[in-house]
Amino acid sequence: MSSFFSQTLAVINMNLLSLPRRLWMSLAMILASAVVVSILLAFLAMAKGFEVTLEGAGSKNIAIFLRSGSAAELNSVLSKTQVNLIENAPGVIKVENVANVSGELFVIVDGLKKSTQTEANIPLRGTSEKGIKMRRNFKLTQGRMFKTGTNEMIVGEGILREFDGFDMGQTVRFGKTEWIVVGAFSTKGNVFESELWANVKVLQSLYNRGSSVQSVRARLEDGADLELIKKYIENEPQLNVDVQTEDEFFAMQGKSLSYMAIFGKVISSIMALGALAGALNTMYTSVADRSKEIATLRTIGFSSTSAFIGTLAESLALSAIGGLMGALAAYLLFDGMNTSTLGGGFTQVVFSFNLSADLIIQGMLMALAIGFFSGVFPAWRAARMPVLAAFRAEN
Question: What is the pLDDT of residue 394?
Fold first, then answer.
């Protein structure tokens, strides 16, 4: 057994030391693997960043009510009567007989993207002090809170990063209405940072919504049973609403960009086939270049298995180097990069690419797969190479 391992290590060493003779072809294989991995990781980091941004906003202790059948706040309308009935739902926290409930409006306004100088939809949310307190990790980073009854608003940090015209003190016009930016806020990078917030009653008045809202958030008691709330809704004819926890709601919204991960894997797989073809050519050339050395080793007693493993190890080493280079390039170019895309509410969601460790592992597995499939057949050829034929080829 020790002889087998020593033979295998000797073959691997010989193969790696002979790489300078095939420098350019080896570099081409490394580069091909690197490109495949970097493109795969770019798509995966985009999808992961979007998912993290949405999931980070949700809470299991906050229930969100929408009109029955509405997939997003934009499609929902709830009357004042329905809001009052929701306040009496089982499990909703009450403080001094006042339910911890926030009726909110969600309207679309135009913003100018810094990167392209094109207009894009962004959400203007009408909320209240109760609603703001329901947002985890909320913190004013600039200025102050908007005052009730005024055309003042605060903007999310994501809006400040990606859109022009929302700096502190600026006046912003939406239609015929002017708003003054009096503050900026952070929610630790989640989806709420992609919104503008103003007083809900002012928004109801300006958009002629009367006393209606589009969603209701309610803080639940610890251990509250959502099924009891659903049963309460079923037994109340005027409550034509759906309810789910906030984290469930945002998890569903996050699936809207899951296609990016699938698309990235498909594109990378197609590119991997091209890289595989080039890598196969590299490895067959490697075997041909080392035919005399392989034959010599076989003549002095080295096993065919050691020749197989040594050749396969060379292929895996080259692809692994390419994978590491691709992962490094993706990390330097994309990790933490800010962008925005259309979310489930037909508005822009600002998020950062998130290149996590599990994604890097996926990229490395892709590189090693290229190395394995490009090396196994040339390795089999090296193991089966007739000794006399190899010497004749050299002559």
Answer: 47
Q: In this structure, is residue 249 part of a structural domain?
A: no
Boundary of a domain, candidates 204, 239, 274: 239
In this structure, are 31 and 80 located in the same domain? no
- Sign for the CA dihedral angle at 323, 324, 329, 332 comes to positive
224 and 283 inside one domain: no
Nearest to 254 by CA among 41, 11, 72, 100: 72
Q: Which amino acid is at 116?
A: T
Alpha carbon of 290 to those of 52, 307, 313, 390: distances in Å?
A: 50, 11, 15, 9
Query: What value does the mean pLDDT of the chain take?
Result: 84
Q: Residues 169, 275: one domain?
A: no
Residue 300 within a domain: yes
135: amino acid identity, one letter: R
Domain count, the chain: 2
Which residue segment(s) compose the domain that 206 sits in?
69-239
Q: Where are the beta strands (DSSP E) in the chain?
A: 62-67, 94-95, 98-99, 101-113, 119-127, 139-143, 152-156, 163-164, 171-174, 177-186, 196-199, 215-219, 241-245, 338-342, 348-352
Do the bridges between strand 348-352 and strand 338-342 make them parallel or antiparallel, or are there none, so unpaired?
antiparallel
> 45 and 22 in one domain?
yes
151, part of any domain: yes
Q: How far apart are the first and last CA of the chain?
A: 35
Is residue 188 in a domain? Answer: yes
Q: What is the pLDDT of residue 283?
A: 75
Q: What is the distance between the alpha carbons of residues 313 and 46, in angstroms, rounded to a whole number?
A: 33
- What are 198-251's pLDDT values in tens digits? 999 999 999 999 999 999 999 999 888 889 999 999 999 899 999 999 888 887
- Beta carbons within 10 angstroms of residue 259's beta carbon: 12
Domain boundary among the residues 212, 239, 266 is at 239
DSSP state of 155: E
Residue owning tokens 């926030």: 102
DSSP state of 72: S
- Looking at the structure, do residues 282 and 347 belong to the same domain, yes or no? yes
pLDDT tens digits, 115-168: 888 888 999 999 999 999 999 889 999 999 999 999 999 999 999 999 999 999
Contact call for residues 290 and 14 (beta carbons, < 8 A): yes
